[in-house]
Specification:
Blueprint lengths: L6 H9 L5 E2 L10 H4 L2 H7 L13 H8 L10 E4 L1 H13 L5 E6 L4 H8 L3 E8 L5 E2 L1 H7 L4 E7 L11 H14 L2 E5 L22 E6 L12 E4 L2 H11 L8 H10 L2 H27 L5 E3 L7 E6 L5 H12 L1 E2 L1 E2 L8 E5 L4 H21 L1
Parallel strand pairs: 1-12, 3-4, 3-6, 6-7, 7-8
Antiparallel strand pairs: 2-9, 4-5, 8-9, 10-11, 11-14, 13-14
This protein binds pyridoxal-5'-phosphate.
The site of pyridoxal-5'-phosphate has 14 residues, from helix 5.
C-alpha cells in the first residue's frame, strides 16, 4: 500500500510547538482542566478508575453524544480517539480497491490520502471561491454518478469556513441517493458558527450516511483526543470490528471528561466561548488583511477559527510559508496543503494579543517582500 505523507499534519507536528507564533491551528485556544471543571469535579477525577472502558464509548458518554442528533439511538454511535480515528475507520471499512470516491476540495486531506491509499479512484468536487466556497450545481451532477461509492464532505468546511447552502445540501443528498452511494460528512466544526446557529447535521437525512464529530474544534478540547462517528446500526457494528484493531477504546479519563464537557449547560458554555473568540478575533484578522489592499482577497468564513485567503504574490504557497517560518518564526498553512496553491490558511483562534503579534511578524515579512518586488 502506498501512503502519501499527510503534509499538513507533518508540518504542524514539526513546528507548532516550536515556533514563536503558531497561526496554523484551526481550533480556538484550548481550555485548561480548571476552566472545564469545578474544584469539586477535579477532586472527583482522582477517583476515576483507570481501567478499560466500554470499547465503543461508555453509555453515559454515548447518551450525551446522542442528544446532538435528533432521533438517534446511542447504539448508532462509536466513540473514537479524535475525529481523525473516526475518519480512518470509515475509510478502512468502506473502501475497496477500484471504488470511485468523490471528495470535496479544498479540504482537510486525511480522507483524501486514505481513500487513495486504500485503492480508490478519487475525484474532486470543487468548492468555488467565486461562489462563496460553494459547489456549482452542474459539478455536483457531473461528479456524483451511478457507480460512485462514497461522497466525502467537511461541513462546515476546513479550510474555507463555509457552510453548504440548503439547496446545494439537498442536491448532494439527492445525487448520493440516486447513485446508491454513501455520504460521509466530517462535521467536526459544527457548533463553531459565527451566527450562533448550529449547522444542521447530515445524520438521518438519508439512509446511507455516516457523520463524524469531536471535541477538538468547536469545543476547544483537542488534547482530550475525543471524537465519534454516527451512522446506521449495521455500519457502526461493522466498524466496531475495525476499531478493535486500532485503539480499542479512548482512555478512561477522556471518556469521563468528554461526558462532562457534553452536559447540556456546559456544552453551551463551551460553544459560546468558541463563538466569542471567533467573533472577537475575526475583525482583527480582516482589518489586518484589508490593510494590504488588493494583495489579499478572501471570502469571510461562516464557521471555525480559520480564514482561507488568496494572495497576489508571485510565490508558491509552500515556499511562502517556509520563508515566513524561517525568517519570522511564524507558522501558517499553505494552500498546497488543501490542493489549492496561491492561498494561505490563517488560524485566528488564539489569544488576541498573540494573534496580533504573530500577524505583525507576517506583516514585516510582506513589507520586506513588497520592497523587493
Ligand atoms: C476536518 C477535520 N477533520 C478531522 C480533524 C482531526 O481532528 P481531531 O482528530 O483532533 O478530532 C481535523 C483537524 O484539523 C479537521 O480539520
Amino acid at each position: 500500500m502506498k501512503l502519501d505523507m499527510f503534509k499538513m499534519e507533518r508540518m504542524q507536528s514539526l513546528w507548532e510547538n516550536a515556533v514563536d507564533y503558531n497561526l496554523s491551528e484551526s481550533g480556538v485556544h484550548p481550555l485548561t482542566l480548571n476552566e472545564l471543571l469545578s474544584a469539586e469535579e477535579i477532586k472527583e477525577l482522582t477517583g476515576v478508575e483507570l481501567g478499560y472502558t466500554q470499547t465503543n464509548g461508555t453509555p453515559p458518554l454515548r447518551q450525551q453524544i446522542a442528544r446532538l442528533y435528533p432521533g438517534i439511538d446511542p447504539e448508532n454511535i462509536m466513540v473514537t480517539a479524535g475525529s481523525s480515528e473516526a475518519n480512518f475507520l470509515l475509510m478502512w471499512s468502506l473502501i475497496e480497491p477500484g471504488d470511485k470516491v468523490v471528495f470535496e476540495l479544498p479540504n482537510y486531506l486525511q480522507m483524501w490520502g486514505l481513500a487513495k491509499a486504500f485503492g480508490a479512484r478519487v475525484e474532486p468536487l470543487w468548492l468555488k471561491e467565486e461562489l462563496g466556497w460553494q459547489p456549482a450545481p452542474e459539478d455536483i451532477n457531473r461528479v456524483i454518478t451511478p457507480g460512485t461509492k462514497l461522497v466525502i464532505l467537511t461541513n462546515p468546511n476546513n479550510p474555507t469556513g463555509s457552510i453548504l447552502k440548503p439547496g446545494l445540501r439537498e442536491k448532494i443528498i439527492q445525487r448520493v441517493e440516486e447513485a446508491g452511494a454513501w455520504l460521509i460528512a466530517d462535521e467536526v466544526y459544527r457548533g463553531a458558527e459565527i451566527s450562533g446557529e448550529e449547522t444542521a447535521s447530515f445524520y438521518g437525512q438519508l439512509k446511507q450516511v455516516a457523520v463524524v464529530g469531536g471535541l477538538s474544534k468547536a469545543y476547544g478540547l483537542p488534547g482530550l483526543r475525543l471524537g465519534w462517528l454516527a451512522g446506521p446500526g449495521e455500519l457502526v457494528r461493522k466498524i466496531w470490528t475495525y476499531h478493535d484493531y486500532t485503539t480499542i477504546s479512548v482512555s478512561a479519563l477522556t471518556d469521563h471528561l468528554a461526558a462532562k464537557a457534553l452536559e447540556p449547560d456546559r456544552r453551551l458554555k463551551l460553544l459560546n466561548r468558541t463563538r466569542d473568540i471567533i467573533r472577537h478575533n475575526l475583525p482583527l484578522l480582516e482589518k489586518w488583511l484589508q490593510s494590504f489592499g488588493l494583495q489579499f482577497s478572501y471570502q469571510a468564513p461562516s464557521a471555525g477559527a480559520i480564514l482561507f485567503t488568496a494572495y497576489n504574490y508571485d510565490y508558491n504557497s509552500t515556499r511562502l510559508v517556509e520563508q515566513i517560518l524561517k525568517e519570522k518564526n511564524v507558522l501558517l498553512v499553505p494552500g498546497d496543503h488543501f490542493e489549492l496553491d496561491r492561498h494561505l490558511r490563517l488560524g485566528f483562534g488564539s489569544r488576541p494579543e498573540y494573534l496580533q503579534a504573530g500577524l505583525g511578524r507576517v506583516a514585516e515579512f510582506l513589507t520586506e517582500l513588497n520592497k523587493k518586488r
